[in-house]
Structures are given as C-alpha cells and as structure tokens.
Amino acid sequence: xxxxxxxxxxxxxxxxxxxxxxxxxxxxxxxxxxxxxxxxxxxxxxxxxxxxxxxxxxxxxxxxxxxxxxxxxxxxxxxxxxxxxxxxxxxxxxxxxxxxxxxxxxxxxxxxxxxxxxxxxxxxxxxxxxxxxxxxxxxxxxxxxxxxxxxxxxxxxxxxxxxxxxxxxxxxxxxxxxxxxxxxxxxxxxxxxxxxxxxxxxxxxxxxxxxxxxxxxxxxxxxxxxxxxxxxxxxxxxxxxxxxxxxxxxxxxxxxxxxxxxxxxxxxxxxxxxxxxxxxxxxxxxxxxxxxxxxxxxx
Length: 299
Known about the structure:
By secondary structure, the protein is an alpha/beta fold. The protein is built from eleven helices and twelve strands. It has helices at 46-58, 60-73, 78-93, 96-103, 144-159, 190-199, 202-208, 224-227, 258-266, 268-277, 283-289; strands at residues 7-10, 28-31, 41-43, 120-125, 128-133, 165-170, 213-217, 220-222, 234-237, 242-244, 281-282, 294-295. The strands form three sheets. The protein has a six-stranded mixed beta sheet with strand order 4-5-6-7-9-12, with helices on one face. α2 (60-73) packs antiparallel against α10.
C-alpha cells in the first residue's frame, strides 16, 4: 500500500471541523460504523476499503483530482461547476496516467460515424418531442457524431418554446455505454478539448432545459450513458439496468458532466464511491440513492 496516495481513518477519528476536508489534498477514506461528512468516501466493510485503496493506487493523480473536483463543485452553480470539471478533465488529459492508458491501446484513435439512419431519431406529436439514440450496433456510444446530434436536439428544445416535453431513450440492447473509446485521443491538445466541452456540450444544454426532459434508460448506462441522463428532470430505468463510472481506470474523471449531474442527485460521497471503485450498481440501488426516479420496464 502507498499511504502517500490517500488518507485512511476510522470514522470516529475523522476531524469534525467543517474546513478540514477541503484542506486535504489527497482522497480521504473513512471506515467503520457511523457517518461523517468530512470524508470523500465512508465504508463499513474492510474488503470494500481495500478495493478503493487499490483503485486509488493505480491512478493516484486521477483519484486526487476527482475528490478535489467533487468537493469544489458541491458549492458552485451548475454551469460554473461544469467548467471546473472540464478544466480538471483537461488537466488529466495532458497527464501521464491518461497518456499511459492511450499508449496501451493497439489501434490509433479514429472517428466513428455512420449507421442505419440518423444518430438520434426525432419525432414530434403536438407539444411532445420523442428522441431515441440510434446507434444500437455501437451500443449508442457517445461518439462525436452522437454528441453533435444531441447538441442540436437540446438546442431545439431551448429555442422552441412550444415544446413542453422531451422524452429521450435509446434503441437496441442498452441505453449507452458512454464515450466511444476508439475516439479517445483524437483532439490535438487538452486546451482544445476543454474548449469543445465548454461551447459544444450536450450536458450544459440539457441542464438548461432539464425541467422539460424525461429520460428512460435500460441495461448498460456507463460513463456519459448516465452522466447525461442524470441532468434530466425525471429519469426512469428498466429493472435490468446497471450504472457504472469507469473513467478512473483510464486516468480520467467523469467528463460529460457527471461530477456535477450525478453528485447533485446522489451526493458527493456516493459519487466518489462510484468513480473510485468503478463498480456497477443496479436499478434498485440507483433508485434508493436517487440516481434514478423510477423503475419502469416500458418506455
């Protein structure tokens, strides 16, 4: 173990001063019975604690950045919080952990585009717009093509005041497995990537029209496949759905708005646990935490 990568304390030994946690640079793990707000994650099981420590030690810089972002965005407006997330994500894109992950891939990054029809199928019935992610062969991953289509969709909802509701779902075997890893590394530099996330971000737009948006997800909801739906005013999920944030294993943090959208639904500590552990939670756990609002097996 490398204790210089984290701070681990029994719950009863965590200081109570309100400012203590923000003065810590490293992830703070608390274990044992009881609760404390002055930790990034609090667990009761020692095996779970060991898992978190192992994950932190694999990518300590990303883990440190994650908890610092979550602590910071807790106190910011939504749009400002998303800027903080993007700046942190850009920093990690220029870092050694992410670069090591990129170099471990066999293939060079490339754009993934094309399929049967438009990437997002849109229809309208009166004041209700229905939209479906339409790259089932690609498990509806968030490619550049899909991102641009979602930006256009949310811009439409924001511009057309006659639209009272947007219902978003996904075609195929799952809602979305998140960003397409084959496209990771395409942007020439991390500053340009931050610019794109700032001015061309579907999450920012969805947040602005959230009260009009209902999202129904099913099966795999990974990375941005839950980060984006979490902005919606109402999220329902099929009973077989699962949710996962795998970005830390790549030397990154959630970068599609998840540090903001998810933490505003389930709190800082649950969000940190999801991202640090990389583990899946099922629909029942997601409902109990507030990540989704309803379990429903029909759209």
